[in-house]
Every structure is written in C-alpha cells, then in structure tokens.
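Exam review. A common question shows you a sequence with its structure tokens and asks you to describe the fold in words. Practice with the pair below. Do the first one on your own.
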Amino acid sequence: MTVEGEKLLREELLELKTIIRPQISEAIKEAREKGDLKENAEYHAAREQQSFAEGRIKDIEGKLSNAQVIDITRMPASDKVIFGTTIIVADENNNEITYKIVGEDEADLKKDKISVTSPISRALVGKSEGDEVTIKTPSGNIIYEIVEVKYV
C-alpha cells in the first residue's frame, strides 16, 4: 500500500471510531427510549448501521495490520516502473494517459490509480521509459509506449 493509501485508511478509521460510532450509539439509545424494539424500524436501522460500521472498522484494522507501506519518494528514482510510480504512457494515437500503480484497496480509475494486480499494471511493471508494451484486453490488444516514469 502507498503512504497516501495508508493515510486515507487511517483517516477513515478515525472517523468511524470518533464520529460515526458515537452517532450510531446515540441513535440506538434514542430508538430504545421509544419503546417496543420488535416493531421499531429506527432501532433496527441503527443496529444495521452499527453492524456495517463495526465490520468496516475490523476490515480497516486488519488491512492496516497486514499492510506493507511503500514510500516511493524514499527510493532512488530511475526510469523503471515499480509499485507506487506514476507513469505517463502514449497510446497508438499519441494520446497520453497517466496512471499511478497502487494497492488493490486504493485503486480508483477515476483518479487514474490502477491496482498493481490489474492487467495494465502487470504489463507495465519492470519496464522502462521508451519501452513499448502490449496489453491484452477482451476488446483486443492495446499498445502503449512509456513516456515518463515519476517517483512522486
């Protein structure tokens, strides 16, 4: 996982524990005060939210305890694509696309972050600036040229 990914998970965990969890507890308390719990929809909804929040807390804590955080800025920069690097590639029409190779939990194509296990990442990792890479996709092969590799 990248340093940024760890930071985001820690922020989410802090929010869940300090803001969401107390809000849910308060909602449960208020719903209990209204009487019969068997037919109290507010109570059941709050308990369901509590279950989701506690599950997410356990999930994040597990990920953070098992994570290997890689700070790409502390590595000697080169032109080789590795986990955490930002890559600018050019397609066959010379359109440039930027990708950052991140852990599976951090991947977000809308933010140009692709999972290290994705076919694009697997094809790019280990290659260098100037290399041409062919990526097999269901719709056919895509050819990229690696324009630049950034260690930021």
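Now try the second one, then compare your answer with the model answer below.
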Amino acid sequence: MSLMLGVNVDHVATLRQARGENFPDPVMAARLCARAGADLVVCHLRHDRRHIQDSDVLRLKKESGLPVHLEMACTEEMLRIALKIRPDSVCLVPEAPGEKTTQGGLDLSGRNAARIKAAVTRLKKAGIEVSIFADADPDSLRACKKVGADIVELCTKAYAEAPTRKLQDAELEKLSIAAVMLREMDLRIHAGHGIDYNNVGPIARMSGMECLNIGFSIIAKGVFEGLGSAVSEMKGLM
C-alpha cells in the first residue's frame, strides 16, 4: 500500500476565526486537498475551539469527500462528540491550556491508562478506528497496545525541531526503532508533528509507515503557491 497523506486543515479555520467570518472554509480546503491527492482530512477539535468548530467536524464528515481523522483530547465532552459524529478515525492526543500546539505524546501511565482504555473501547465499539499520539519510547508504545489502539501516531516533534543534523539523525533512529517495535506488536504506524518539505523524506521512507499527518507546513506553503500545489508537492516528496 502506498504511503498516505492526511492534511490537517486546522489553520484554515484559524484564519477564519481571526475575523469571525464564515470563510475561508475548511471543507472547501479539504475538497481542494482531495483533488490534489490527499488521502484523508485531519482536524483537531480543541476544548477552547480556537480553530475547528463542532460544525466543521460534522461538515467535513458529510461534505469533504475524504475520510475524517479527528484529533481530540480524551475527555467525556470529546467522546460524546466523536460518538455522535462518527469520524472514520480518532487520534487521542494530550491537550494543555494555553499551548500553541501539541507538545508530545499522550501520557498512558498510572490511572490514565484505565481511562484511555475505556475511551478506546467505546470508540471502537462504535466502529471508529483509534490512534494514540505517542512518543517513541518503549513504555509508551507497549501501553498503546495494552489500551487497545489500532494505530500509533509517532510524535516527530523532537526530530523536526532538532537543531543539528547529528541530533536529528539520533531522533530518526529512535523513531525507526519505535516503528520496528510497533510492527512486532501488529500496530499500524502513522507519524506527525512538525513535518515539512525539508524533513519529510526520511520519515516517509521508514519501513511500515502507513500515513503522515501534516498541516501547518502545507497550509503555510499554500498561502503563497496555492493549496493544491502545496499538497501535490508534498505527495511527490513522500
């Protein structure tokens, strides 16, 4: 199976919310991405609704023409929304007040594990595939298996933000080892966070990688070159 691209349209909604208008429309953006070769549309419904709104998720499900991958915190509010709208898949992510973007993988230690396992069970019972956003460390990956995830999305933040080539190579090795471990546990592998046109190649070539979820770099490039062109270029690099 060829490597899939999930395009996150959050920042189309960021621009819309900045003026309180009804445009630009994330659904229109998703349709453009679909025509340019995107395989799924990604959105993060945050507690503070800073960009994507509940109605966006529903419209993306009904009108985008792409499978919808919903990123969300593991809270009762978000679970109710997911179970009502029924996106094709959900990625459970950490969410901290005031953060500019997600800072790392989900904490699956201690009591969190039981809470997350219960959420995974509810989502899967409703026919929704479940991904866990996780750091590339063995304990976290084993915990993903224990809570019943279908997919693990490896957090590539440390790789993308490494200040030197040597440190970037070290982070890539961690991700590669994590991918081997996930394959051995029969878990599907996605990756995302900070992936751009300069660093996508090594991640795309990792054995077993199924999907890369990329947002900011594509939307930013699309401002200057057009969204369709930005998506096509990323697909070509992958």
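Model answer, second protein: The two ends are 13 Å apart (CA to CA). Residues 20 and 180 are 45 Å apart (CA to CA). Full marks require stating both points clearly.
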